[in-house]
Design brief:
Length: 140
């Protein structure tokens, strides 16, 4: 990673190491996608491969996080899972476009949307899990 906004910060921590590791991996894959998009010699197939990798990890991660929230009895897990559902739907729509479209998609615009959604979700929703672990309540 190159000193960009995608650098991991302790502020992102959920206090659950496996979830933090997956978030770090997602940021890494997001950065990899931004890198491939800025490479002139990258083919559409190269870009699609990196995009698919990010999406596969993100979708698996949402399922994993929902299982963990259930296991620890996290009270806000339904609202949190509803946000994941929304993210899945938005990501699915973009995937249709970039994987099955005519190859003329605005990759940078679409990827920056994914970037904003993922980061916003991690910072404002996933970190509430830490508040619950530390204070025993889900709200701030
Ligand atoms: Fe989440
Ligand atoms: Fe997450």
């Amino acid at each position: 990673m190159n000193g960009s906004a995608l650098e991991w910060s302790d502020n992102f921590s959920t206090d659950i190491m496996s979830i933090d590791r997956q978030h770090q991996e997602l940021l890494f894959l997001l950065q990899k996608l931004l890198d491939v998009l800025s490479r002139e010699d990258a083919t559409l197939e190269d870009t699609q491969r990196v995009y698919q990798d990010l999406v596969d990890h993100a979708l698996e991660h949402f399922d994993y996080e929902e299982r963990i929230m259930k296991n620890i009895g996290y009270p806000d897990r339904k609202a949190h899972a509803a946000e994941h559902k929304d993210l899945r739907a938005q990501i699915d729509a973009i995937t249709q476009d970039v994987m099955h479209g005519d190859g003329k998609s605005d990759w940078k615009g679409l990827v920056s949307l994914v970037q904003v959604w993922l980061l916003r979700h991690i910072v404002s929703t996933d970190t509430k899990i830490r508040d619950f672990i530390q204070n025993g309540k889900a709200d701030d």
